[in-house]
Amino acid sequence: MVSGFGNDGSMRHLALRLQSGMARAIKKIGYHTPGQRLLFHQYDYMFSPGQLGFLCECLLGTNELSGPVVEIGCAGGSTTVYLNKYLDEIGSSRRYICVDTFSGFTSADIDVERERGKIAPYELVFKAYSKPYMLRTLQNNGVTRPEVYEADVNDFDFALLGRPSMCLVDVDLFRPVKHSLESLLPRMAPGGLIVVDDCEPDSDYDGALQAYLESTTAHGIEPDVRHGKLGVIEVSGAL
After folding, report:
1. How far is CA 43 from the centre of its chain?
2. Is 126 or 21 the better-scoring residue by pLDDT?
3. In terms of Cα–Cα distance, which of 102, 81, 192 is closest to 145?
4. Per-residue pLDDT reduced to its tens digit, 131-185
């Protein structure tokens, strides 16, 4: 018997040393190549740490409600993974429902932005994602809670959501944000929260802010934008 191979512990130790050595070698080689960005950690969220923390506060603050958490616009699923991990941490049993076209913005939504005078290349944004891409992201991170719908939110049946406890609306442009808010507000559970992303002026995505302000004004709700771009609606009762 060769010394060092006499038990399972030694074999595992050797395997870990080989794995570690290979990882170091790959990173040393990759450091000097154009692909080095793929080998090193990158911040993969479209929210700042403070904004992610606030979303977690919203989940915690609505945890006594039984209705589902809804994410409208989820792209590749990074935020979905983060928020689901937090739901697991606080022991929430709520459903988590995702809705996305998984093919970027629709031509009808882009047409409205053009009418608003916007010239950003919306046709090219979020084209790299797909439903299989997102499902693989969830699988790779051990996240099994989400129910994922591939749909244009303008045509989606919001009755499928029941009475949501918290909803993140992250579809950026005026038309889908406005439709989402007008569809959600009558359905939210009392005490529920809606958070609208991209509520900041003079940006390529300020259609979200216009939609947020129009809906809050129409329903007599005081606008409340936090962390620079998160428009909040606290639902106190039936609207």
Report:
1. 14
2. 126
3. 81
4. 999 999 999 999 999 999 999 999 999 999 999 999 999 999 999 999 999 999 9
pLDDT for residue 128: 87
In this structure, what token pair is assigned to residue 90? 């606080």
Residue with token string 């608003």: 116
- Give the bridge partners for 230, in sequence order: 226
- Over residues 91-143, the pLDDT tens digits come to 999 999 999 999 999 999 999 999 999 999 999 999 889 999 999 999 999 99
Q: What's the CA angle centered on 15, arms 11 and 20, to 5 degrees?
A: 150
**What predicted TM-score, i.e. pTM, was given to this entire model?**
0.84
Token pair belonging to 89? 């941490």
CA torsion through residues 237, 193, 75, 97, sign: negative
Tokens at 109, concatenated = 């939504």
- CATH of region 49-234: 3.40.50.150
DSSP code of residue 73: -
DSSP, collapsed to helix, strand or coil, labels residue 220 as coil
Q: How far apart are the first and last CA of the chain?
A: 77
Q: Is the pLDDT of residue 52 over 90?
A: yes
Q: Is 184 helix (H, G, I), strand (E, B) or coil?
A: helix
Q: What is the pLDDT of residue 32?
A: 60
**How many residues are recorded in the chain?**
239
| Among 231, 237, 194, 195, residue whose Cα is nearest residue 213 | 231
Neighbours of 103 (CB within 10 A): 13
Angle at 35 between CA 32 and CA 39, to 5 degrees: 90
Helix, strand, coil proportions of the chain in percent (round to 5)?
A: 45, 10, 45
